[in-house]
Amino acid sequence: MYKWKDTTVDELYRLFAVFIYMGICQFNTLEEYWRKGTDVELVYFRNLMSYDRYILLTKCLHFSDNDKQPLPNAKSKQPLAASNQPVTDCKQLLPIIERKV
Questions:
Q1: Which stretches are transmembrane (predicted)?
Q2: What is the DSSP code (8-state) at residue 70?
Q3: What is the three-class DSSP state of 8?
Q4: What is the dihedral angle through the alpha carbons of 21, 59, 67, 11, rounded to the nearest 10 degrees?
Q5: Closest CA to 62 of 98, 87, 40
Q6: Which of 8, 21, 70, 80 would give a disulfide with 74, using CB separation of 3.0 to 4.6 Å?
Q7: Which residue did the predictor score with more confidence, 26 or 97?
């Protein structure tokens, strides 16, 4: 976290592009996508963002509104409601992402 700098909307789009591209072009380890000097060198990944920045963003990325989260000791009538919130949040973001593509 000592290397943290604020992210931008453009950088998040690049991060999601990396996620999509990783689904298309699969390797055994994350490092292989950024590795130089191999038979299959993917310059595309290095041009989008550095490996260190990718790791940092994925460690901090979450799809949840912290203000809507119940307090740790509060009892809920719907115990799985907190685990469903990220899915609901993503469904709301999809139309926005589709318009940009």
A1: 12-30
A2: P
A3: coil
A4: -50
A5: 87
A6: 70
A7: 26
Please answer whether residues 35 and 41 qualify as being in contact, where contact means their C-beta atoms are separated by less than 8 angstroms: yes
pLDDT, position 80: 56
The amino acid occupying position 77 is K
In tens, the pLDDT along 8-31 reads: 999 999 999 999 888 888 888 888
Number of helical H runs and strand E runs in the chain? 5, 0
Cα separation, 10 vs 8, in Å, equals: 5
C-alpha dihedral over 40, 45, 50, 55, to 10 degrees? -100
- Among candidate residues 7, 9, 8, the one with its CA nearest the CA of residue 100: 9
Per-residue model confidence as pLDDT tens digits over 28-64: 888 888 888 766 667 777 888 999 999 999 988 877 7
For residue 45, count CB atoms less than 10 angstroms from its CB and return exposed for 0-12, middle for 13-18, buried for 19 or more: buried
